[in-house]
Inverse folding.
């Protein structure tokens, strides 16, 4: 299922390991442009290719824009986490493919990522303790077929899944994060 151009969980395309991009072609450049547009229109800060139905290793990220004028996402092709800290930090995450909820996810608080840009230059990104750090990991997870649901313990997974189904029933759209699901007694 798709809403506003975004593939929604539990669509099988979100569960697939994505193929590496072997060559930067005009088709890949168009995909990057399309992803930037979809991310902006859905008020996201990160988007992975499978979230627009393409199972290739590309993500776009902009965690600091406030308007169209300062919107300038990074395009990361074949991104790989090459270093990460052992220290885990909780962060409330939302996902364009899982609208209407946010979940507390524990992730390393420091990562170093290598990827290629659209000019085939190898670029290194380093982030620690901020939204960029979380976003890099979240989007790279998508390229491995992992959603935030898989990062939850079994009880939290059930609670989050129920909250997500309720959010969809209420008409949640990509970009709406809603409240963090809480365990009911």
């Amino acid at each position: 299922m798709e809403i506003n151009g975004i593939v929604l969980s539990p669509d099988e395309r979100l569960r697939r390991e994505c193929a590496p991009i072997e060559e930067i072609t005009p088709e890949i450049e168009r995909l990057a442009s399309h992803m930037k547009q979809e991310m902006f229109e859905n008020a996201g800060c990160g988007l992975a290719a499978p979230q627009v139905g393409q199972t290739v290793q590309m993500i776009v990220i902009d965690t600091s824009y406030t308007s169209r004028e300062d919107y300038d996402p990074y395009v990361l092709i074949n991104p790989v986490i090459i270093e990460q800290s052992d220290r885990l930090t909780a962060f409330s995450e939302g996902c364009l493919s899982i609208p209407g909820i946010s979940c507390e996810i524990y992730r390393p608080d420091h990562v170093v990522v290598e990827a290629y840009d659209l000019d085939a230059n190898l670029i290194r990104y380093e982030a620690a303790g901020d939204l960029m750090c979380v976003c890099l990991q979240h989007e790279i997870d998508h390229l491995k077929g992992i959603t935030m649901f898989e990062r939850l313990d079994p009880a939290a997974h059930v609670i989050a899944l129920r909250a997500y189904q309720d959010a969809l029933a209420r008409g949640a759209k990509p970009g709406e994060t809603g409240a963090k699901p809480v365990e009911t007694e």
